[in-house]
TrEMBL record:
InterPro entries (alphabetical): HTH-type_LysR_regulators, LysR_HTH_N, LysR_subst-bd, WH-like_DNA-bd_sf, WH_DNA-bd_sf
The organism's place on the tree of life at top rank: Bacteria
UniProt source species: Marinomonas profundi
Protein name in UniProt: LysR family transcriptional regulator
Family membership: Belongs to the LysR transcriptional regulatory family.
């Protein structure tokens, strides 16, 4: 079977449009339509509903999509490995990094890596750990930083960093007089939180569930400077990693009681081929970026 129609089929499934798929693939729309019709004829099945402008997969199409994605990923891995055996490297690392680490932990590591390997292109995607994990599983990323305790069977991980989640308050907040903060007292306050899908928020939501509490979330934002500003002005409290707090932030941090530690690792798919560029990045992070657990 020619795999090119499978690439077209996946693009249609993701964009829900023949036109958008053709634009994404940089081919003419008639070529996409003809390839899909031939694929359906070869299989003897209808794969796509075509109702006016609404394009969707049939039940048969949904089943084929699962196999098509695996076939394309395996083919791309094989082509990359074969090219590297001839001494040709793709020279690209696609890595997902949660926003908090992307802003405060990884910049010097990324710059040092680029200095050592100037011919390797780094594509850094920032987002929530859940979103990044899904992108990694779908082959949209080569590597991603994830919360180690949520590692699914299809991924392997290398320990990276262990950080404590700290209650963060304004300098004049009553919590500043305490040595530690219980979850009960934390959830009595109005909170400034990251949006759902970020490890910061997932940890807080899990903690609330464990203590049978409903968080009083006054502000939701993924912008760390805004979280700091709102907290500084006393409009709520938050919880951040120690690495995020700087000397001039005018914020006070206190540990939870009991303490909450977050184990983060850098992960990749078990069944994928890691290019030389990705292996170089893993080794570099292990040598220069890892904090002991």
């Amino acid at each position: 079977m020619d795999i090119k129609p499978l690439r077209y089929f996946i693009a249609i499934a993701k964009t829900e449009s023949f036109t958008k798929a053709a634009q994404q693939l940089s081919v003419a729309q008639p070529a996409v339509s003809m390839a899909i019709k031939k694929l359906e004829m070869d299989l003897g099945l209808t794969l796509i509903h075509r109702a006016d402008r609404n394009v969707g997969l049939t039940d048969e199409g949904k089943k084929l999509l699962i196999h098509a994605e695996k076939i394309i990923q395996a083919t791309d891995d094989a082509l990359l490995e074969m090219s590297e055996l001839k001494g040709l490297s793709q020279g690209e690392v696609r890595v997902g990094i949660p926003s908090m680490l992307g802003s405060y932990y990884f910049p010097p590591i990324l710059m040092a890596f680029h200095h050592k390997y100037p011919t390797i292109t780094l594509k850094v995607i920032e987002g929530g750990t859940w979103q990044l994990q899904k992108m990694l599983e779908n082959g949209e990323l080569d590597l991603s930083v994830i919360v180690a305790e949520t590692l699914p069977d299809g991924l392997e991980t290398q320990a990276l960093i262990r950080e404590e989640m700290l209650v963060t308050v304004a300098t004049d907040h009553p919590f500043s007089q305490l040595k530690s903060i219980s979850p009960e007292r934390f959830f009595d306050e109005e909170l400034v939180m990251f949006k759902e899908g970020y490890f910061h928020r997932r940890i807080v939501d899990k903690l609330a569930k464990d203590y049978h509490r409903t968080p009083k979330i006054g502000f939701e934002t993924n912008l760390i400077p805004l979280i700091k500003s709102i907290t500084q002005q006393g409009f709520g409290i938050s919880t951040l990693l120690a690495m995020v707090i700087e000397d001039d932030d005018e914020l006070i941090t206190r540990p939870f009681e009991p303490a909450i530690w977050l184990d983060l690792g850098i992960a990749w798919r078990k069944d994928s081929y890691l290019s030389k560029a990705n292996r170089a990045f893993l080794e570099f992070v292990s040598e220069h970026g890892r904090r002991e657990f």
